[in-house]
Amino acid sequence: MESPFKPEILKGKVALLTGGASGIGFEISTQFGKHGASIAVMGRRKTVVDSAVSSLQSLGIPAVGFAGDVRKQEDAKRVIESTVKHFGKLDILVNSAAGNFLVSPEDLSPNGFKTVMDIDSVGTFTMCHEAINYLKKGGPGRSSDDSGGIILNISATLHYTATWYQIHVAAAKAAVDAITRNLALEWGTDYDIRVNGIAPGPIGDTAGVRKLGPAEIKSGTREIMPLFKLGEKWDIAVAAVYLASDAGKFVNGTTLVVDGGQWLSGPRHMPKEEVKMLSRVVEKRARVAPTGVPSSKL
Ligand code: COA
């Protein structure tokens, strides 16, 4: 789909995306690049990173890739420093690397729980921690009239209620949202850095839906999906463009839910016609006072 934003909305910006070589992360890389940003992608698999960089470059987007694991502080430091060395500065950090699998709590080992916490929550914090010097107002490579940089954390809606077989990811994303809010407060105040999140719903053609989505979601049942369709990676990417651009300059500390209203929904417990009828009967009864005197006579 064509973007509703001007193509130069991120012109001159340098963005580093963890998990930026595949899935939603890659679509954000692409849309950021199409809107003028230079892109660095970080991922665990070198072949995936290399192929993402080639695809971005074939679109005319300045791009570079680094293999690395967000669980390793030395990798985070090296990739951030290499990005700045390559492009001269860092404006936008997107934390999109995530681990996930379905498992019931009793079958999940503490190490399995910790693995997802380490990737999603600790990994997000580690990247932010290593990037702060470059993102803060007046940091290396930033001109004196530049504001501070931007952090975007990719979250989820799993933990708003509770989600079957996702205890580890729900806990990890709850921590991510807390990181988003705390950094928005503390680094917004001290360093002029805006920190926001995006919570995608079920997005078609992603590992998330292929691996995790129940059949009702895959087939788009209206009962649990108000808009009756899966989202597209594009929906998340343009939300990211909005938050990373000056269009979002007063948005700080929020996690934008982009899920078509899915997390709010549950099966309709009664057909609409039945509600109307029942409601009339109940209302008539209510208008008759317990004494038997119709309310119109009271
Ligand atoms: N069910 C239960 N436990 C699992 C599991 C599964 N499907 N996958 C991993 N674990 C547990 C392992 O058993 C291990 O715990 P143990 O040592 O107590 O046995 C722990 O998690 C670490 O597993 P390991 O395979 O060593 O971790 P890893 O670092 O190689 O990768 C993931 C783990 C989660 C990152 C891996 O599943 C992955 O790469 N997923 C792809 C990312 C993804 O799906 N992204 C989409 C996000 S929506």
Describe this structure in words.
The protein has 298 residues and is α/β, with parallel strands linked by helices. It has 2 domains: 254 residues, Rossmann fold; 29 residues. Helix content is 44%, strand content 12%. The chain contains 9 helices and 7 strands; from the N terminus they run βαβαβαβαβαβαααβα. A 7-stranded parallel beta sheet has the order 3-2-1-4-5-6-7, with helices on both faces. Coenzyme A binds next to helix 4 and helix 6.
Task: Write down the CATH topology of the largest domain.
Answer: Rossmann fold
**If you compute it from the alpha carbons, what radius of gyration comes out, rounded to the nearest whole angstrom?**
23 Å
Q: From the 3D coordinates, which CATH architecture of the largest domain would you assign?
A: 3-Layer(aba) Sandwich
Shape category = globular
| Estimated helix fraction | 40-55%
- Full CATH superfamily name of the largest domain: NAD(P)-binding Rossmann-like Domain
* End-to-end gap: 62 Å
Q: Oligomeric state of the chains?
A: single chain
- Ligands, ions, cofactors: coenzyme A
CATH class group of the largest domain? Alpha Beta
- Uncertain regions spanning at least 5 consecutive residues: none
Q: Into which percentage range does the β-strand content fall?
A: 5-15%
Structural class: alpha/beta
Give the mean pLDDT.
91
Strand order, sheet with most strands: 3-2-1-4-5-6-7
**Sheet with the most strands, sense and barrel status:** 7 strands, parallel
Q: Count of helices?
A: 9
Enzyme class: oxidoreductase
EC number: 1.3.1.124
Keywords: NADP, Oxidoreductase
Catalytic activity: a (2E,4E)-dienoyl-CoA + NADPH + H(+) = a 4,5-saturated-(3E)-enoyl-CoA + NADP(+); a (2E,4Z)-dienoyl-CoA + NADPH + H(+) = a 4,5-saturated-(3E)-enoyl-CoA + NADP(+)
